[in-house]
Amino acid sequence: MKMNLSKIEKETYKRQIMLFGETGQKRLKKATVFMVGAGGLGSSAALYLAAAGIGRIIIADSDKVERSNLNRQIVHGSKRLGKNKALSAKVTLEALNSNIEVEAVTERITALNIDKYAKKADILLDCLDNFETRFLLNAYAFTKKKPLIFGAIYGYFGQLALIRPGKTFCLACIFEGLPAKGIFPVLGATPGVVGALQAMEAVKYLTGTGKNLNSELLTWDGLKQEFRKVVFKKDPLCRICGKEKQ
Asked: The domain at 7-245 falls in which architecture?
């Protein structure tokens, strides 16, 4: 991929180039993002990352589109019921922005294959709804020293954090064990908000613009429209990033 911006790209990204210049836009074009999950969070995050001009998006999801997904998973549609979510997302993202590359990973991410896909990435996005894979991605980020943007939702509520191995807490510092599995309620706009914030955090990090979250868990209460930042320190006894692991 050529790193210089074409005339079409300069016009497409004109409004954001006003914010961080062509240098920042070239950084986005050069960047690779690996995101796990093409559901509610992944839909919103992927759409805004694609629209922003991230050069390469690798999106992984082994599930298929179901009708009950459609209230929130806006990267899909009713005509794609039964289609793999990563492949469905690829179709939508490439239609949105033909200047980027999208790689769909249709297999479940495990300890055996994660490096195959994530090693290419400049930043990782956790757009998951299961903690087993979430903890796997967290451990991988720590081992490989890659930044990880965590997003989670429930009902009208959301959480967001930027994890920078060696500098901030990791997910294992603040979450213990695996929560009970099951179907939980969610308003479609909730992952829309948090996924968009994940995309914004990624763009800021990659362009060096503004101030990223730093050792903070951002929480959002959609019922009250309130945001809060909770500061967490690294747990020295954390099984992943504790001092004995340094």
From this structure: 3-Layer(aba) Sandwich (3.40)
